[in-house]
Amino acid sequence: MTTHAKTRIVGTSVPRKEGADKIMGRALYVDDIEREGMWHGATVRSSIPRGLIRSILYDRSIDWTEFTVVTADDIPGQNIIQLIVADQPCLADGKVNHCDEAILLLAHPDKHKLREAVDAVRIEYDPLPPVFTIEESERRNPIVWGTDNLFKSFLLEKGDVDSVWDTAAHIVEGEYRTSAQEHLYIENNGVIAEWNIETGVTVWGSLQCPFYVHKSLLSVLDLPEDKVRVIQTETGGAFGGKEDYPSVLAAHAALLARKSGHPVKMVYDRMEDLAATTKRHPSRIRHRTALDLDGKLLAMAIDLATDGGAYSTLSSTVLSRATLHSPGPYVCPNVRVRSHSWATNTVPYGAFRGFGAPQAIFAVERHMDEIAAAIGIDPIELRRRNFLHDGDTTATEQLMRDPVILDQLLDRALAESDYDAKRARFARENPNSPVKRGMGISAFYHGSGFTGSGERNLNSLAGLDVTPEGKVRVLVSSTEFGQGTNTILTQIAAESIGIDYDDIAMAPADTGIVPNSGPTVASRTSMVVGRLIERAGLQLVNLLREHAALGKHFTRDEFFAACERYRALNGKVESLCRYEAPPDIFWDDQKYRGEAYPAFGWSIQVAQVAVDTLTYSAEVEEFWAVQEVGRVLNPALAGGQIEGGVAQGIGYALYEKVLLQNGHMANNQMTNYIMPTAEDVPPIHVFFEQIPFQHGAYGAKGIGELPHDGPAPAILNAIRDATGIGFRAIPLLPEDLFAELAAQLPAEEPSAV
Amino acid sequence: MSAPWATIRFILNGEPCAVHAPPMKRLLDVLREDLRLTGTKEGCGEGECGSCSVRMNGELVNSCLVPVIQAEGATVQTIEGLATNGELHPLQKAFLACGGAQCGICTPGMLMAAAQLLDVNPHPNIAEIREGLAGNLCRCTGFMRIFESVVKAAANESTSTEEQAAHAR
User: Fold this and answer.
1) Chain A residues whose beta carbon lies within 8 Å of the beta carbon of residue B104
2) In terms of CATH architecture, what is A33-128+196-238+247-262?
3) Which residue, A127, A170, A334, A436, is the most exposed by fewest CB within 10 angstroms?
4) B103 to chain A: which residues are within 8 Å by CB?
C-alpha cells in the first residue's frame, strides 16, 4: 500500500516551492501588479446598521465627471452574491442591513482622489431598529432576516438524553461564550478587474477559491462561463478570510471596470478591511452533562448558538461543523445538540480557520474542567475515562474504524510538558507569589475535509500535464496562501511519477487553465486534492508505459522522452482524476447521522500560564501541541502550520477583541486590535505521531485548522489551575481578569526588597 | 500635500537615485509607485505591522511613516538590495531552509528587521531576537521558524559581507 511505502520526497522538508520569490521580494501580490490604463476603485458604505436609503447626494465640491459611479442599478445580472443562500446583495439597493455595507462604488485614475470623493457622497437614511446580539435576535422583535431571524438550525441526537437526568450521579451545567476574531492576514483583501467586450471579465486577486469568485461573477454580470476568468495572485495570508469575501470585492471591481472601460484595482486599506470584511462567528454554548459515580459520561445536552451577522454567507456550514465538534472527543451514549445560527445587523461572519470548531471545542473543553472540579476528579483522569477509542461511535454514530490514539497523545503531551511535576511545583509556589502559574490541557479532534456528503457533491477534478519544455504541471484550483499547497502537491506529483521535485511546476491558479479541484478550505488540500494528484501521477506513468513504451524503471530523460512520444500520438500529455469517495462513507443529512468526516486529526495541547495578580496580565509561558494527522508530508511545513495555528489560538484566547459600537467595528486598526507579537508568543513544542490514512495522499489527513481549535480552552484551563477561577468567555483580557481577581484575590503588596 | 514637488536624492540599494515627488509622499509609496520596487509591502499604514520596513541610514524604519523628504541624502536599503551580486543574504538562505516564510507578505520587512538586528548584534540570544523582531507582525508562522532562521543565519554569518564590511570600516 502506498501509505506505508518508503518515499523519496514525500516526508522530507523540501524548501517551499515559491520560497525564493518570497524571500527576495519578487513574489507579486495583487497590489504589486499594474495594468495598462488602470484606475482605482473605492466603496461608499453604510454608516448605520439598519435602515432604508432615502437619498444619495453628491457634493458639488467634486467634479463627478472625472469619476465612474456604480450603484445597484448598474448591475447587469442578479444583485446577489452567490454562495449558499441568495440573500446578500452585491450592492445595497434601497436598504442596508449592517454598517459598512457597500452601497456605491467609485473609480478614478488617481487613487489619492478617491478618499475625498467617498466622503463627498452623502447617504440619507430612514433608520430601522437593529439587533446586535444572539439574545436580541432570538426574541424575534424586530425581525431583521427572513421570517424568524434564523439562518439555520440542526438537531443531532444519539440515544435519549432525557432518560438519564433523574438517575445520574452528577449533573453539571455551564455556559461558554466566544467573541468574534479577525483573520488579520497581513495582506488586505484586493483585486484587479479588467473588462473586454470580446473576452469578458478577467479578475486577478488575493483569494482562496477561484471558482467561488467565478460563480459569483457569472451571476452578477450575467455572463456565460467562458467570459469570466479568475486568476489568483500571490496571497498574503487568508485563514478563511479570503474564502467568501473576494466574491463580493471581485464583483465590485468588475462592475467598475465594465462601466469605466478601464482595468480597476480595488485594494482595501487596513481600516476598511477590518470594518467591512468577515470575521469568526461569536458563539454562546450551553452544556448540561450527566455522569455516573465513576465520572463516565451518561448524557450531553448541548445548546449551541452562533451570531451570523446580517447575511447568511457560510453560517449554515460553520454551524454544521460547530455542531459536529461540540461533544468533543468523548464516548457518550446519549447526546443531543441543538444548534442555531442567528441574524444580527453586523458585518456577516464568515469562514475562519477551524470553521466553528474552535468555538465548540472551547466550550466542551472548558466544561470538562468544570465537571472535573464539580465532581472532584482530576481533569486529566476525567478525560481518560471518556476518550473515544477505535471501535467506539461518535455522537453521529460514526464508527471509529481507524486507530484513535488519544491516550498515547496524552501520555506524550504530559511527558513532554513535565505536566505533573510542574503542576505540583506551581501548587507549592503560588501561595507565596503574586504570579500564579498553572497548567491546562485540551483534547480534541478536527474533521478533515468537507462535512458529510460535501466531498461527494464537490466532485473535484485535478491532475497533471506535461509541457513541451519538459515540465510536469500540477493542474488544480487549490491555492497557495502560505500553508504550503504548492510545495505539498509538487512533492506528491514528483513522488508518484518518480521524478524530481524541480521537474514539477504549479500551473497558475487560473480558471481559464486549471480544472475545479474544489475550494481551498476545510483542511482538504493535502488529503483530498493531494490524493487526486497521487492518482494522476500513477495514472500518467501507466499511460506512458502502455502507449509510449516507458520502461518499468526509468530515468528522468526517459520519462520526458516517453511524454514526447505520447504527445506525438495524442497531441497532449494530460492525466486528470476525479474524486472517489471512500467506499465505507455514508452520511444522512436529514438525521445528521453517519460518517461526518472521512478522517479526523487528533490532538492534545498543553498550556503553561502565568497570571500576574499585580498587573492582571495572563501570559502563556510555554505551549505543547501533540497531534496525529496521518502521514506528515513535509515536517517543516507541518510544524509551521501547528505553530502558526497555536499562535492564532493564543491571540483568540488572550489578545484579540473585536469591539463593536452600534454595529461598527470601533477598533478597526492594528494599533487597537492586538495580535500576539514576537515577544508574546511562547516557545511552542510540536510533536507528531503518524498513522497513515489509507484514503489520503501518501497517508495524509487534514492539518491546517486543527491547531487553532485547542489553545483557548487549554489556556483558560491553565488559568483556572493557577487562580481557581474558571473563566468562561474569550477573549480574556486584563480587565476581565481584574474584574474577577480583584474581588477574589486581594493583591498583596510587593514584599520589600 | 499642497507643497510644491521636490526632487529628492538618496542612495538606494547602493545606487544613487533621484525622484520628483511631493515632499510629504510616503517613502513606501515612492518606493512602490515611483521606483516600482514592490518588495516593500503595506500592511497597516500606521507603523504597527512592520511589513514596510526598510533600512535608512543604518536604522530600521517603517517606510509608511517616513515622508520621502526625510530620505534626502540618506542611504536606503530595501529587500531588493539585500542579496548582493546575486548571492542571497545568509538570512534569506536561512528563511528558505527553516520555513521562516509562509505566505510571504511580512517576509521582506521581517528580513530587513532581522538584517538590522544582526548588523547591530551579530549573535543575539533568543530574547534579543524576539525584541528585535517585535515590530514586525507575522500571522502565519507563530514566529518559531523565524527565530530559528535568525539563529541559523547568525551561526553562518561570521563570513557575511555585512560583517566583512563592518570590519573593513
Assistant:
1) 18, 21-23, 27, 234, 236, 482
2) Alpha-Beta Complex (3.90)
3) A127
4) 185-187, 235-238, 481-482
Q: Give me the residues paired with residue A123 across strands.
A: A56
- In this model, does residue A577 exceed pLDDT 80? yes
Query: A16 vs B147: CB contact, 8 Å cut-off?
Result: no
**CA A540/CA A354 separation, integer angstroms:** 35
Confirm or reject contact between B141 and chain A (CB < 8 A): yes
Side by side, which strands form the sheet with A504-506?
Answer: A504-506, A472-475, A461-466, A574-578
Of A601, A538, A563, A252, the residue nearest A403 (C-alpha): A601
Q: Do A683 and B144 touch (CB under 8 A)?
A: yes
Render pLDDT for A42-53 as a digit per residue (tens, 0 to 9).
999 999 999 999
Place of cell 486507530: A403
- Chain A interface includes B38 (CB < 8 A): yes
A330-363 pLDDT per residue, tens:
999 999 999 999 999 999 999 999 999 999 999 9
Closest to A514 (Cα-Cα) out of A556, A461, A457:
A461
Residues 623-662 of A with CB under 8 A from B: 636-637, 639-640, 643-648
pLDDT in tens, A286-315: 999 999 999 999 999 999 999 999 999 999
- The pLDDT tens digits of the residues spanning A372-406 come to 999 999 999 999 999 999 999 999 999 999 999 99
**Which residue range(s) make up the domain with B140?**
90-159
Chain A residues in contact with B143 (beta carbon < 8 A): 643, 647, 678, 681
Please answer whether residues B32 and B80 qualify as being in contact, where contact means their C-beta atoms are separated by less than 8 angstroms: no
- Out of B81, B99, B133, a domain closes at B81
Question: Which one of A16, A18, A21, A22 makes the best mutation probe of the B interface by having the most chain B beta carbons within 10 Å?
Answer: A22
Same fold, A2-28+460-578 and A354-448+598-744: yes
Give which of A3, A452, A516 is closest to A211, Cα–Cα. Answer: A516
Work out the average pLDDT over A577-605. 93
Give the model confidence (pLDDT) of A722-753 as tens digits: 999 999 999 999 999 999 998 875 545 444 44
* Sheet strand arrangement including A617-628: A435-448, A599-612, A617-628, A684-689
B48 and B96 both lie in a single domain: no
Residue A391: other Cβ atoms inside 10 A: 10
CATH number of domain containing B71: 3.10.20.30
In this structure, whether the domain defined by A354-448+598-744 belongs to CATH 3.30.365.10 is answered with yes
Choose from B34, B140, B148 for mutation: most chain A CBs within 10 A.
B140
- Is CATH 3.50.50.60 the right assignment for the domain spanning A2-28+460-578? no
Interface membership of B35 toward A (CB under 8 Å): no
Name every residue whose Cβ is closer than 8 Å to that of residue A627 and which is 6 or more positions away in sequence. A409, A601, A602, A603, A604, A642, A686, A687, A688, A689, A703, A706, A707
Collect all residues of chain B within an 8 Å Cβ-Cβ radius of residue A681.
142-144
